Amino acid sequence: MTTVAENMVRTLRVNGIDRVYGIPGDSLNGFTDALRKDGTIRWVHVRHEESAAFAAAADAALTGELAVVAGSCGPGNLHLINGLYDANRSRVPVLAIAAHIPTVEIGTGYFQETHPQELFRECSVYVEYVADPSQMPRLMEIAMRAAIEQRGVAVLVIPGDVALAEIADDRAVVIPRATPVITPSADELDRAAELLNGCRRVTILAGAGVEGAHDQVIALADRLAAPIVHALRGKEHIEYDNPFDVGMTGLLGFASGFRAMEDAEGLLILGSDFPYTQFYPDGATTVQVDIRGEQLGKRHPLDLGLVGDVKATAEALLPRLTAKADRTHLDDATAHYRKTRAKLDDLAVPARGKAPIHPQYLARLIDEAAASDAILTADVGSPTVWAARYFTMTEKRRLIGSFNHGSMANALLHGIGAQVAEPDRQVIALAGDGGLSMMLGELITLTQNKLPVKTIVVNNSSLNFVELEMKAAGFVTYGTDLQNPDFAAVAQALGIFARRVERSEDLLDAVAEVLAHDGPALLDVVTERQELSMPPSIKAEQVKGFALYAIRTVMSGRGDELLDLAKANWRQLF
Question: 216-237, pLDDT tens digit by residue?
Answer without folding.
Answer: 999 999 999 999 999 999 999 9
